[in-house]
Amino acid sequence: MDFLAITGPTTSGKTALSMRVAQTLDAEMVCMDSRQVYRGMDIGTDKARLELRERVPHHGLDTRSPDETYSAGQFGRDARVWISEIQARGRVPLVVGGTGFFLKALTDPMFREPHMDSARLEALRGHLASLPREELQRWVVELDPDRSAVTAQGGPHRLARTLEVALLTGRPLSWWHTGGPLDQEPLAGVVVILEMPREELDRRIDARVTRMAEEGLVAEVEWLLQEGYGSEDPGMTGTGYREVAAHLAGETSLEVALDRMRSVTRKYARRQLTWFRRQMADDVVRVDALQPVADQAAQVVEAWRIATAAEG
Q: What is the pTM (predicted TM-score) of this model?
């Protein structure tokens, strides 16, 4: 087996479980989170605290600025390097996070990025940046109707990316996802999914938003804005950052912003649950996240040892 993965919806307890498993198996963590890659975004992404990182090495945190994009394909390439290096040290690569597309980039690699002329790409990006979101969405429906629903859920960068590929390669991005050459060979892993009732997830989400506010989320967003990052930058589209930015702009009260953050996070958790239900293979290890962490860890460690023993 190439890696062990612990995934599940937000607030399901991945951090606590992974720390216990990592210490038992002598593992290093590969963070599988599309927002924790961004520097300066600590509280709102609920990054592992420094003392935890000192106890167990973490890879994949703070690798990008908030105005940079970070795709599942790039994660797949980066993670393969980290996994290889961890294996070379004789340790277990433990992939942890809730971004399902990042996990798929390891087990079911995405297409190789098509070549696009850099000068034409730069010119096109400048033009697309001048168009309103509604116009971008209209063109996506025309040029890549199969991807329009998914693209509409993202920000302007996702819309622009869909249009860039369609216009500069002659094929829609949806074709590249299904018909393009693979970027990497698939990796084999033991995948663990934490399962938790929606009611408990909702309770934990509400509590976590309150904790983030108490720990200084508003000050963190204010600093990011002062540094020149805006609500349309890839990192700043994360849950909580747009809502707090709206509060700092005087558009809402803090309480309204936090309530919106709770609501958006609950909807995100439901999308995660749906994705895990539909996309994960039948052989994943499902763990009841309401059990004591020690019991969860025992199940995970046993699953890993059985899988690796079966390989001989």
A: 0.81
